[in-house]
Amino acid sequence: MLTGFLGSGKTTLLNRILTEQHGLRIAVIENEFGEVGIDDALVLDAEEEIFEMNNGCICCTVRGDLIRILSALMRRRERFDRIIIETTGLADPAPVAQTFFMDDEIASQLRLDAIVTLVDAAHVQTHLDEAKPEGVENEAVEQLAFADKVVLNKTDLVDDQQLAQVVTRIRGINALAEILPAQQADVDLAKVLDVHAFDLDRVLESDPQFLTDTEHQHDTTVTSVGIDLAGELDEDRLNAWLGTLLRTQGADIFRSKGILALAGSDRQYVFQGVHMLLEGENGRQWQAGEERRNRLVFIGRNLDRQRLNTGFAACLTTAGVPA
Ligand SMILES: Nc1nc2c(ncn2[C@@H]2O[C@H](COP(=O)(O)OP(=O)(O)OP(=O)(O)O)[C@@H](O)[C@H]2O)c(=O)[nH]1
Fold first, then answer.
1. Rounded distance, CA 260 to CA 251, Å?
2. Per residue in 76-115, pLDDT tens?
3. Vertex 206: Cα angle to 204 and 212 (nearest 5)
4. What's the average model confidence in pLDDT over 304-317?
5. pLDDT tens per residue across span 248-293
6. Using a 6 Å cutoff on CB, does residue 290 contact ligand 1?
7. Does residue 155 surpass a pLDDT of 70?
């Protein structure tokens, strides 16, 4: 299972796993938080079977779906060797792990190999420090607490002293998991795939209620706003709007991503933001006759839906038509 806070590098690692040679055929279950699904377009085209679960968070509302997909996969088990589940950045990994022990059919056929938690070295401390309402877990803490392997990603964004602080912080939450420093999630895959690292006895030692406590509450103050608009964008206006938005509200906008249509370009434009950091690159070519449209999503706190919609629509070269 791949877990880790929003934007920590889960899809980056997944893409590595799907493209590097390791001799394993992988089936993928992707769960995404956000009103508009983007990740399907960000996961590299691969031969592997990819299932998406986008109607809620894997750790609660769609757990039934997870069981159904796993069961369906088991009926064609000759087609793959391993299953990777990528959770949303806001998921509590415990209920997902429980699925492998509490559902008899799954427990008898599948083994949870490891919970691999991605960490964004530059942003993790802010999320670990977040105060949550009574009874609501801090997802970032849970994801680290349950990790069998921690991929300490984005070491390029911090200096040695900050990195050492993050390691101390991680150790305070999880004393045992191996910590693998990485950039662009470039870990040795032998350390995260097929490692037999999940140990139920160890989990029960630190969390005796692990198999019985199925209740958990999400932080409902984190929400998403999705935009799906046909039309083409003026690149300068887009850059100015997005730049200002993330500079002024990047503390609250944890994650942003989108697949956009820039005027004058025959390729899709893919942008990815994590707080104030923004990256963009050309994606695949628009196909002949394909409608130019823009899908993007913002995830965070205090999102002003109307302002996001009008701000974005003003970047279109023509009036946008809801797709
Ligand atoms: N600077 C830097 N950026 C990175 C590194 N690894 C990944 N990124 C960037 O971080 C952004 C988020 O990476 P993803 O792999 O999509 O993260 P994720 O955890 O799948 O994100 P969600 O699914 O939205 O939670 C992308 O823009 C990546 O290019 C790294 O080591 N250093």
1. 23
2. 888 889 999 998 888 888 888 888 888 888 899 999 999 9
3. 45
4. 96
5. 999 999 999 999 999 999 999 999 999 999 999 999 999 999 999 9
6. no
7. yes
Q: Are 59 and 93 in contact (CB under 8 A)?
A: yes
Q: What is the DSSP string of 116-130?
A: EEEEETTTHHHHHH-
Gap from CA of 169 to ligand 1 centroid (Å): 21
Shortest CA distance to 257 belongs to which of 5, 89, 42?
42
In short, whether 89's Cβ falls inside 6 Å of ligand 1 is: yes
- For the chain, list the domains and their CATH numbers: 2-206 (3.40.50.300), 223-322 (3.30.1220.10)
How far apart, in Å, are the Cα atoms of 209 and each of 34, 106, 200, 201?
Answer: 30, 20, 12, 12
Q: What is the pLDDT of residues 130-145, one digit of tens each?
A: 888 888 889 999 999 9
Q: Are 123 and 275 in contact (CB under 8 A)?
A: yes
Q: Name the percent of the chain lying above pLDDT 70.
A: 88
Tokens of residue 322, six digits: 């809801």
Would you state the structure tokens that stand for residue 115, as one six-digit string? 């919970």
**184 within ligand 1 shell (Cβ under 6 A):** yes
Residue that has been written with the tokens 């769609």 in this structure: 62
d(CA 227, CA 36): 7
The upper half-sphere exposure of residue 63, i.e. CA atoms within 13 Å in the direction of its Cβ, equals: 19
Task: Determine the residue of 12, 38, 269 to mutate for testing ligand 1's pocket, defined as the one with the most ligand atoms within 8 A of the Cβ atom.
Answer: 12
Looking at every residue in the chain, the average pLDDT score rounds to: 88
Question: Which two tokens mark 92?
Answer: 């509590």
